[in-house]
Amino acid sequence: MTRVLLVEDEVPLLQSIAFTLRRHGFDVRFAANGTTAIDIIVDQHVSEQPIDILITDLQLPVMHGLEMLATLQSRDMAVPTLVITAHGSAEMRDQLASMDVVEVLDKPFSAEALIERVSALVAESAGSAVP
Question: pLDDT tens, 70-106?
Fold first, then answer.
């Protein structure tokens, strides 16, 4: 089962996304900010049950999503990532691309669009996995 970490501080949206992902067979973990997300990713890595996909907003309390992604990258713990944002500028997309994050989904989005993007990330990461 694919392990997804969902980082979102808006509880109703978090619940909606988690429901959709679980309905499609994903194992979903939660974090409300970037600091907690990093802790979860490290803990899961240490327990040899790494997070497979990261879905994150950028506008987060405690630690901004871009800072979280940069921290993970600097620790060699980057995870295939889907960014969900209501503030998607060209500059932000360029910053994400420089961190190898190419999947961005603008809010609001449909459940179908979410599952399509997550499924593409799963397929892409499976295709790049070393046998």
Answer: 999 999 998 999 999 887 778 888 888 888 887 899 9
Say if 130 falls within a structural domain: no
Cα–Cα separations (whole angstroms), residue 19 to 42, 57, 77, 115, 128: 24, 17, 26, 12, 28
The set of residues, in sequence order, having a beta carbon less than 8 Å from that of 126 and lying 6+ positions away, is none
Overall number of domains in the chain: 1
Q: Which helix (H) or strand (E) holds 20?
A: helix 11-23
Domain that holds residue 57: 3-125
pTM: predicted TM-score of the whole model, two decimal places: 0.92
| Core vs surface per residue 38-60: b (16+ CB within 10 A) or e | bebbeebeeeeeebbbbbbbbeb
- Give dist(CA 65, CA 77) in Å, integer: 15
